[in-house]
Design brief:
By secondary structure, the protein is α+β, with helices and mostly antiparallel strands. Helices cover 49% and strands 21% of the residues. The chain is built from 4 helices and 6 strands; from the N terminus they run ββααβαββαβ. The chain has a 4-stranded antiparallel beta sheet. Strands 1-2 form a two-stranded antiparallel ribbon. A hairpin with a 2-residue loop joins β1 and β2. It is globular and about 60 Å long. It starts with a strand and ends with a strand.
């Protein structure tokens, strides 16, 4: 496997399976050329994704700070992002002891996304706070489900990533 990187971040990989013979020096050279070509395309996708995430986070901050006082404005902006508004939503804050680094942020996103206990509409980090706008996967969800989700995240951050002392509110 050859990793395709931009600075310190891995953008993707090219995997090659050796079957009947090992790769020659020329094969490795061609593989490295392919990785350079793929890097250009993956970098374009990476920048588009980052720009989209920044737009989402800007909107989320504006939403949290009252920039959109009218319901219709919020609905229009969600429509611009191709996001269907949920009837039930919650703002959840996870406060860590230390500022949130990239690895902790990615761990939170992974854990929340794979749990399927809620739908993460937006998230943002600020200092040691991970702020999340979420909706339940079903219309039958209630406050108990939200509390259980929050406790699940806190427990799993400790079990999987050895991160503890997280305070939460919603």
């Amino acid at each position: 496997a050859i990793s395709i990187r931009h600075q310190e971040e891995v953008l993707g990989y090219i995997w090659v399976v050796e079957r009947d013979k090992s790769l020659t020096a020329e094969d490795m050279y061609l593989l490295k050329l392919a990785a350079q070509s793929a890097r250009i395309e993956l970098l374009k996708l990476y920048r588009q994704k980052k720009k989209r995430e920044e737009s989402y986070q800007d909107f989320f901050w504006q939403l949290l700070t009252g920039r959109y006082p009218k319901h219709a404005e919020v609905i229009d902006k969600l429509d611009d992002f191709h996001i269907k508004p949920s009837l039930h939503s919650a703002v959840i804050i996870f406060r860590f002891i230390d500022d949130i680094d990239m690895q902790t942020e990615q761990s939170m996103i992974y854990l929340i996304s794979t749990s399927q206990k809620i739908h993460m509409t937006f998230y943002a980090t600020m200092g040691n706070d991970f702020i999340l706008l979420a909706s339940p996967p079903s219309t039958q969800a209630n406050e108990t489900d939200l509390s259980e989700f929050v406790q699940f995240v806190i427990n799993q951050m400790y079990v999987r990533f050895e991160i503890d002392h997280i305070i939460s509110g919603s």
